From TrEMBL:
Designated name of the protein: ISXO2-like transposase domain-containing protein
UniProt-listed InterPro entries: IS1016-like_transposase, Tnp_ISXO2-like
Domain ISXO2-like transposase: from-to ranges: 136-229
Taxonomy of the source species: Eukaryota, Metazoa, Spiralia, Lophotrochozoa, Mollusca
Positions in coiled-coil regions: none
Pfam families registered for this protein in UniProt: DDE_Tnp_IS1595
Length: 229
């Protein structure tokens, strides 16, 4: 059950609570007791020191000669960002519920660039995950809806800026199994290759009325057009 905003306020009452909550969900790696890779001898424990960083807490090796310190943000959604854990949680929460950027900016006292960057980041990470989790879908008597327009253009791919890539996706109507892929262009050849790579032969494909798909019938698919008007 997704948490309510009032629960998030309670979680964000202190850094301790935020960290404990993040541990419980695996949002922050719990390194307590793990062997330190630097000295292969000491074990990590959570230490509190507000001079270390704004997060107050950090991992410290128990071996006094080693003294290795590790940020609690390592390997997490929070790594490499300057904003407080609290603000990042709120931004992510607001993004999930499609809350207007102006509102979030005002509530969290953050600048325009920050909210734009974070909203893009949330979106990009979700697309990456959808692409990674993609599977070949469809088959005989299965209906798959395809669309390249819904997802629009993306400006980044694997962290680097790109000259507008299209995100193309397909979803099984009944099971909701899906695939997503980024493409440089929307030529007939590109889309047909994507369809063949990601959708099994015999599938009934539903798409908007676009002539690049007219050849699907001769490629072993059944094609039903839907006119979005
Ligand atoms: Zn160590």
């Amino acid at each position: 059950m997704p948490i309510k905003l009032k629960d998030l306020f309670i979680i964000c009452e202190s850094v301790e609570k935020i960290i404990q909550w993040c541990f419980s969900l695996g949002l922050i790696l719990d390194l307590s007791g793990e062997v330190c890779k630097k000295c292969s001898h000491g074990h990590f424990g959570l230490r509190k020191d507000s001079s270390f960083s704004n997060d107050i807490f950090y991992w410290k090796c128990s071996n006094k000669k080693c003294n290795k310190k590790v940020s609690i943000r390592n390997g997490s959604w929070f790594q490499g960002h300057n904003l407080s854990l609290e603000k990042i949680l709120f931004i992510t929460y607001f993004w999930i519920y499609k809350i207007d950027q102006e509102f979030v900016k005002h509530q969290l006292s953050i600048c325009n660039q920050t909210i734009v960057d974070w909203y893009n980041y949330c979106r990009e990470v979700c697309i990456e995950i959808l692409e990674i989790d993609s599977e070949k879908i469809g088959g005989e008597n299965v209906i798959v809806e395809i669309d390249e327009s819904k997802f629009g253009k993306r400006k980044y791919h694997k962290g680097r800026r790109v000259e507008g890539q299209w995100v193309f996706g397909g979803i099984e109507r009944d099971s909701k199994k899906s695939f997503f892929a980024s493409v440089e262009n929307r030529t007939k050849e590109t889309l047909l290759k994507l369809i063949k790579d990601n959708i099994k032969p015999g599938t009934t494909i539903i798409s908007d009325c676009w002539k690049a798909y007219d050849c699907l019938g001769s490629e072993g698919f059944e094609h039903l057009k839907v006119n979005h008007s």
